[in-house]
Design brief:
Number of strands: 12
Protein name: Lipoprotein
Strand content: 25-35%
Shape: elongated
């Protein structure tokens, strides 16, 4: 039991030192009035795991990135974005949309936008959502994304200051001589 106490202390110390992540929402975006240049200086993170899949054709089985799995007898390439994967802003394809790259290649990006069903958080956007999946374009190819990943959203490190905390000082106190 005594050996476990230092481990618990270390775990709590390291988790307390990490950035506090908050959802990137449309309201936050509008309130701050961020332009593209400011967005490029913000570190974004994924709130949930996201898995992209595409079925491989027999004539194109060369894999450059990702993994190959056999699902229901079909060869499928997967790209997995783990929860808390860091990403950077690349561009805004149109109003209320941000393209975020999680790789060194700026051509590999996912598009996020505000979702009214999720508190206007910037969530993963896909076309043609069905009950089971949606379609996204990534690295110039079409991929399927599970409907379970539909609420994967962007997080940013955000330090909220209470009103009145923006100016001031900390008084050290005074003792009797």
């Amino acid at each position: 039991m005594l050996r476990l106490l230092p481990l618990v202390f270390l775990c709590s110390f390291f988790t307390a030192c990490g950035p506090r992540l908050s959802p990137f929402t449309q309201r936050l975006y509008e309130d701050q009035g961020w332009q593209d240049e400011e967005l490029r200086r913000i570190q974004f993170y994924l709130s949930e795991d996201v898995v992209l899949q595409r079925e491989l054709r027999n004539d194109r089985t060369r894999i450059r990135k990702g993994t190959v799995s056999v699902i229901d007898g079909r060869e499928v390439e997967q790209i997995v974005f783990k929860r808390n994967t860091p990403g950077v802003f690349v561009f805004s394809p149109k109003t209320q949309r941000v393209a975020i790259s999680f790789e060194s290649d700026n051509d590999n990006f996912l598009v996020f936008g505000p979702n009214p069903k999720n508190g206007n958080r910037y969530t993963l956007l896909a076309g043609d959502w069905t009950r089971n999946y949606g379609t996204v374009t990534y690295a110039g190819r079409e991929w399927r994304v599970s409907s379970a990943d539909a609420f994967a959203s962007l997080l940013i490190p955000l330090k909220r200051l209470r009103e009145g905390d923006t100016q001031g000082r900390i008084v050290g106190g005074r003792r009797i001589d």
